[in-house]
Amino acid sequence: MARPAYVAETFGGDALLDSHLPMLDLIDMLARDYTAMDPADSRHAGLNNVIRALAQSYAEHPAYQQEWRS
Q1: Do residues 3 and 25 lie in contact, with contact meaning Cβ atoms separated by under 8 Å?
Q2: N or C: which end of the chain has fewer CB within 10 A?
Q3: Mean pLDDT by 10-residue block, N- to C-terminus, for the chain (70 residues)?
């Protein structure tokens, strides 16, 4: 995945203004944290809800999986 710093350096800072890259990086980071987290951790359910809410903005994308909706 392209990182915002790389995009800004390569294409200029304005390239990030209309970009989804910062949001995708955030979702990627949260998903990694969620995967590594013990399900008994009290934050597990809340992080699951956050990831699902963020994923909803990509519901029209062809790679979106319907099980992410519930």
Answers
A1: yes
A2: C
A3: 58 59 75 91 90 80 74
Query: Following CA atoms 23, 36, 39, 42 in sequence, which dihedral angle do they give, to the nearest 10 degrees?
Result: -60
Start-to-end CA span in the chain (Å): 26
Give the model's pLDDT for residue 30: 85
Which residue has 């915002």 as its token pair? 4
Distance CA 68, CA 57 (A): 11
29: number of CA atoms within 13 Å, CB side? 7
Count Cα neighbours of 50 within 13 Å in the Cβ-side half-sphere. 14
Measured distance CA(57)–CA(8) in Å, rounded: 23
